[in-house]
Amino acid sequence: MSIDVQPAPERRRSIIAPFLFAAPVLAVLLGLGVWQIERLAWKEGVIAEIAARVHAPPIPLAPSAQWATLADYDYTRVGVNGRFEPRVEALIFRGSGKIEGALEQPGYWVMAPLRLPDGATLLVNRGFVAASRKDDPTRLESLPRGEVALTGLLREPETRNPFTPADDPARGAWYTRDPAAIAAALHLERAAPFSLDEDPHPAPSGLPSGGATVFDIPNNHLSYAVTWFGLAATLIGVLGAFTWRRLRGG
C-alpha cells in the first residue's frame, strides 16, 4: 500500500489561493472593527455633550429672527416667556410612556403652542398623558393661563423610521414630533422649526406628567467592534489551522 504525499513545494502552493481569498476579507473585518472604535469615541463625545447641555443653566431662547440659522441646538436648555394658546394642542402618540409611580403604558405627548412676546409661536411638549386619561376634563383644564415663564430642552424634529405610521392632520393623529407639520395644521403663525420639552412642572391634576424627554441614545459600537475583531480572529484561526495541516501533509 502506498501513501500519496504531496511534495513540500506543492503543499506550499496549495495554500496560496486560500491566503489570497482571506487577505481582503481579513482587511475588511479589521477595518470595520477600527471604524467602530472610532465611532465609539465619537458617540461617547456626543453623549457627554448632551449631558453637559441637559444639566447646564437655562439660557434665553434666541430671537425668532435667528431661528432659521440655529444649528446644533438639540437638548439645549433654554428659558422662555409667553402665553399658551387656549384649547389648541396636538397629541403625539407614544407606544409607551411613564407617569410617576405608574407602569409604562401607551399614551400621548401633549404639544401646546406658546405665544412669545414678539408674536412668534413655539410648540411646547408639556409632558405625557396616558391614553385612558386623554380626554380627562381635569387634564384639559390644566393649561396655565396668562403669562408664564418656563424652562426646558430644545428638540430637533423627530425622524421617522420605516415602521412609523403616517401622520393624519385631518384626524389629529400624530406619530412624530414634526413642528412644521403640526404648526401648519394648527394654523400657527411664525412657528419655530423646533420644539421645547418642558421641564417637570406641577399641574393641578398631575396631567400631563412633565419632563417627557427620553434619553435613549444607543451606543452599541463597542459590541460591534468586538464582533468584527472576533470574526477576524476566527478567520485567522481557521486559516492558521488549514495552513498547519497542509504543510504537515494532512
Structure explained in plain terms:
This protein is α+β, with helices and mostly antiparallel strands and 250 residues long. It folds into two domains: 8-47 and 220-247; 76-198, no CATH class. 34% of the residues lie in helices and 22% in strands. It contains five helices and seven strands, in the order ααβββββαβαβα. It has helices at residues 8-14, 16-54, 137-140, 179-185, 221-247; strands spanning 59-60, 77-84, 90-97, 105-115, 121-130, 148-155, 191-198. Strands 2-4-5-7-6 form a five-stranded mixed β-barrel. A hairpin with a 5-residue loop joins strand 4 and strand 5 (121-130). Helix 2 packs antiparallel against helix 5. The longest helix is centred in the N-terminal third of the chain and has 39 residues, at 16-54. The radius of gyration is 29 Å and the shape is elongated. The chain starts with 7 loop residues before the first helix and ends with a helix.
Features:
single chain, 250 residues, alpha+beta, 5-stranded mixed barrel, elongated
Quick rundown:
By secondary structure, this protein is α+β, with helices and mostly antiparallel strands. Helix content is 34%, strand content 22%. A five-stranded mixed β-barrel has the order 2-4-5-7-6.
